[in-house]
Argininosuccinate synthase
Amino acid sequence: MAKEKVILAYSGGLDTTAIIPWLKENFDYEVVCVCIDCGQEEELDGLEERAVSCGASKLYILDVVDEFCDEYVVPCVQAHAVYENKYLLGTSMARPLIAKKLVEVARKEGAVAICHGATGKGNDQIRFELGIKALAPDIKIIAAWRNDKWTLDSRESEIEYCRQHGINLPFSADSSYSRDRNLWHISHEGLELEDPALEPNYKHLLVLGKTPEDAPDVPTTVTMTFEAGVPKSVNGKEMKVSDIIRTLNKLGGENGIGIVDIVENRVVGMKSRGVYETPGGTILYEAHQQLEELILDRDTYTMKKDMGNKFADIVYEGKWFTPLREAEQAFIESTQKYVTGEVTFKLYKGNIIKAGTKSPYSLYNESIASFKTGDLYDHHDAEGFINLFGLSSKVRAMKMQEVANNK
Amino acid sequence: MAKEKVILAYSGGLDTTAIIPWLKENFDYEVVCVCIDCGQEEELDGLEERAVSCGASKLYILDVVDEFCDEYVVPCVQAHAVYENKYLLGTSMARPLIAKKLVEVARKEGAVAICHGATGKGNDQIRFELGIKALAPDIKIIAAWRNDKWTLDSRESEIEYCRQHGINLPFSADSSYSRDRNLWHISHEGLELEDPALEPNYKHLLVLGKTPEDAPDVPTTVTMTFEAGVPKSVNGKEMKVSDIIRTLNKLGGENGIGIVDIVENRVVGMKSRGVYETPGGTILYEAHQQLEELILDRDTYTMKKDMGNKFADIVYEGKWFTPLREAEQAFIESTQKYVTGEVTFKLYKGNIIKAGTKSPYSLYNESIASFKTGDLYDHHDAEGFINLFGLSSKVRAMKMQEVANNK
Amino acid sequence: MAKEKVILAYSGGLDTTAIIPWLKENFDYEVVCVCIDCGQEEELDGLEERAVSCGASKLYILDVVDEFCDEYVVPCVQAHAVYENKYLLGTSMARPLIAKKLVEVARKEGAVAICHGATGKGNDQIRFELGIKALAPDIKIIAAWRNDKWTLDSRESEIEYCRQHGINLPFSADSSYSRDRNLWHISHEGLELEDPALEPNYKHLLVLGKTPEDAPDVPTTVTMTFEAGVPKSVNGKEMKVSDIIRTLNKLGGENGIGIVDIVENRVVGMKSRGVYETPGGTILYEAHQQLEELILDRDTYTMKKDMGNKFADIVYEGKWFTPLREAEQAFIESTQKYVTGEVTFKLYKGNIIKAGTKSPYSLYNESIASFKTGDLYDHHDAEGFINLFGLSSKVRAMKMQEVANNK
Amino acid sequence: MAKEKVILAYSGGLDTTAIIPWLKENFDYEVVCVCIDCGQEEELDGLEERAVSCGASKLYILDVVDEFCDEYVVPCVQAHAVYENKYLLGTSMARPLIAKKLVEVARKEGAVAICHGATGKGNDQIRFELGIKALAPDIKIIAAWRNDKWTLDSRESEIEYCRQHGINLPFSADSSYSRDRNLWHISHEGLELEDPALEPNYKHLLVLGKTPEDAPDVPTTVTMTFEAGVPKSVNGKEMKVSDIIRTLNKLGGENGIGIVDIVENRVVGMKSRGVYETPGGTILYEAHQQLEELILDRDTYTMKKDMGNKFADIVYEGKWFTPLREAEQAFIESTQKYVTGEVTFKLYKGNIIKAGTKSPYSLYNESIASFKTGDLYDHHDAEGFINLFGLSSKVRAMKMQEVANNK
């Protein structure tokens, strides 16, 4: 009888490589590896041989970069979703898509289980597992690092375990920062970052760009367009969203844009400290917002800001495949209908400096805003407005005087 | 019989100077001028002579800088109050205090009216008048520029009107940017800013600092402390809040910090475009937030962020003297009890770069956050947590499968 | 040359009848009357003759009851939109539709102005005018009662004015309650209600139903179904929404359901006191909510409740034709996809008593909820859940102990 | 050497009685029982003998009814805290106080552990444990029913286990509804309630009152006063809060007030169905709200409603001893300063019918609200107000026309 199959989220790194023999040994599964490419820019050549040589029956490599950008990144840009004022959600955005793809392969392969190598302290275990539960409630989830049968607690022990199972790959026993990368961002944790009193060692840490100090001494001017809230072009060239992000990553990285150092609250109740690089994303968020400044009325702006924060929270929590995320996204999308126009800005040593914004749907009206009185705005209206806007304050003050006088 | 008195909010500039004879001519009031010093750094010497020579019976000059900082700025810093993601509320914070002081003088003088020179298109008229209504509902408000008897619609006509009333002062007929300054910030409106498609002419515009391009090529390191959410020292020196702001304004201004270019939604329903300089304030907000990252738990952080936005909205709207502002401030203050610690950062060409944060009340716990399993955190707990955190998603997915199967 | 036309929102009552000659006399317009039937159940026969005999060039009678129910009432039911905990928004829902129809007729007739007879103290002027501004910003709005040319300040003076202009209709000079009625509700203001210390005189006041005291001594059982949040049937009979409301109005009215006595905050800054009868609507809201209890997960329920309150606020404020209303409605609609099922309840003397709820999409799972341990829920999971749910509290408490010990 | 001590939350019922020998057998602890009286109206006489005869070293009986009412109930009344639109939080309010008292006794006794008998599926385990973690992070928590050493899964097995340990008490093997009672409310779960399609068997179920059907045919009129948001008297008699609740429980119970049938979302991710009786509480909430209708301005009312919902959520979640609860309560308390006045209402068969409300701080102003124009309110102000309130809508509509015309 054929063995039951498990789908393993596979990166080619030491952790997920060691899981292959561990799954076979402890669960007697056939192991199908899946490597999902969200733009991590790693060497994927030779990955299939590696997986198979380590005991997997096959490896899927799925390039989902465009789906990632169009279906996961763009809604976050439109929401201006920022977690705890700073984090642009790079890892959070990708996890549900990975879960979805794992489930798709599991269905195709008729697998009974999905295994991931996320740690038991982090948010990613939640994001993977909530995604799988929502899409395939019948599939068993194996979180290798939380499993009682998992006894490997260091890189050395993992390397030794691999060796015992005939896997001799040139993994280094030295750990560096713990990183997660995709087209949108790279995150860094560990080493000196574990002490919030220490400054990050940016020279060693940065991958996608330079520090502001090392960035060029002259600004780079960039122009972007959006249509209905979707980025459409950079510097006059129409591109798909993924290419826009690639272009902005390069420009932003060179100019020291989008480096964030944060102590954040994880879903599991602890604080962690990380550094994020999101060069292109930071530009995209800012450019989109500059356009919204022109286009959204005050009520919509205020509530959308609030909604963006709520959206960030649930994306961070891994609640992508939920009715609430759908409802919030429906709200956001409804506000984007007229977010169309052009934004110009200069990138200079960590700064994104506005250099002009235009939209056919701009609510900015020079004749109203200027100091002269025009047709559309009568100074007298302000009198009535203020009288009613402040009416309850005045009535209240009169009441208080009355009560005071009666005493 | 003595004439009734009007209190005039007086700056010494052309607009409020022209109002003195206008009030006497049109209302037959005795005009008592009040100049309220929130740190605008203008020449106040000779102001009394000017006011009196223009027809005022006297001039009060009130230095309220410390009250401004302690009672109005600090609550906004603690709230991290930012209007529409960018504006640090410099003008908004000062207006209610000015209203309060005008009322105090009005009571002392037994005045029946208060007059201000704010335009009929702006937010300041609202802030002044809501303040006065809430504190002195019986006092008549005269908004000169909205008054039907006010016919002067240019600087030239104001100068001519002054001249006709025997006032020959060296006012220039050329208008520059429209500005509002206090210790916290300076705002700029008008000229090229009236077209959002144009880049601000920073060379002419900036008052408190330099652009990032013109800032020094080497970073400046700064250390600050807070106690219970109140700034206490800079670089090891204890100072009162106003001196901390002065110090940070200098440091921030030199390093190109805190320049904001925004199209914002005014309360009166229009959009306007302005540039704000808030060098010290921007540092203070960021430093305070870095500390809160260490100290506030996730629930509190999330809701406080929301509350800060709401606080910003009502401060912007001029609703300072309202039960809602008091209630929101009570919430914020309650969260500040343990916001105590030290923050270090580097200022460099527009960037505030974190360089270490410490607090005795830090909830960051290295042994929990690190990748090793420790006493306080058991990996197995995550399993249970995720199972319940995702329970409704799983039940829902099962239900959907059941419905699908029944069809 | 043909006269310019004005569209008059016409009810046939004294107020709007007097406006016909007033408009002709003061503006020299051709007056086109429009009576919009949202289910007010008034005598519309003979209305055209009345309008024309009073000087109108014609009268449109538009039956919009179904559009009202489907496009305005249903979204509010789905939102569970209640203003200030009590008011089911009956008047607020209808005003934007009326504004829309007035604009449609104005466009068809090529009119340059629209006139309404709402008072200068109420919310309805806002709702009419915001609707017109949003749909036809170029059309002039005439609010008769706020107009300086309007000098009639009592029913007597209106009757006299009509008489002078050849209109002799049997209007009574005695004023009763001020009322607004449509299919959804009737509101009552004025007379004894103007003193919140007085009990409403329900015997004279009620129109749509009885008091609980006068309701039958035996309960009436009702069953309803919903599909995707839309009411579909009552007691087994499929009906369009308007007929469902008619049916429930009858059942609810007889059983003393949906009488509300409230002091509410108007948009214009004052408090007013009113009594509302919404017999069918109250049932519909409650039935819909009972179904949502079964179907919505906790996160969605919580945020939808909040959104419903926000939706109520903007509907109350007359901001129907705004991007924010559209966005909020998109959120709400997204949550309604699975709000399908059957609700049974008993009506008894003002009470709606639940008597059973069923849905194919119910997330209630007896085996999970019961006291026995089942497959889907492992008691051990709760341990992990609580440990992480309370982790920050515990860490905080430890930190406080540590600080205390260090002192 | 003396044994280590465990504190057991003891009710005298079968479950917690069986835990006494279980704790001694499995943990070798000295068992100190604590019975905390929040007004459950059970027979506490003889409880000490029972506890001791079952193996406890002693029993504390703590009457905390007044602390419960003053420190836990009143803040919830002021917040108008209602969970998921219906549940008045009776159990949720009491749990943190119980946790606090358990910790106090634990400190006094020098105990190392606290044990409770709440089920592994419910909310109460969370509320107890979060309270203990926040107040005594060093104390071990034993949740008997979740413990692997606990093998008793039915009342029969518990009775048998007791017998084996020499405890022969007249416990019935038949289970009734699962109930929780205190002065504020009683909850019912189980039996027919486990199927939401079934009507509750009210005849057997109700404890604190009658159904509306069984209530008297004549209304009972009640008058209450509040001072600064705190209930002070009923029908002219000043009483402490607990006595007010007792009085209202009697009046409300007799008149069929405060029976709620709900399917609610538990914190642990499941739905459960319960019936709550909160006769006095329902009256108190409604009376308090009627007063707030008169006193709170619109902004404060709106935000306080939102805050009340958030307060309800965290109280439900057991997060009483958190900075967030303190901050929310600070907000609420700030709004209560002027919630002073008198409320009259009639209780009639499940209905609370308003019969007049008065307050010295009422913002209701008859001369403003009435249809006549008075001093304080000028109809013309409404014109200006509406023009600015709708300005962005109008500008937007003009812009859309412009874009349409350009196509």
Notes: Chain B is about 45% helix and 20% strand. The mean pLDDT of chain B is 95.
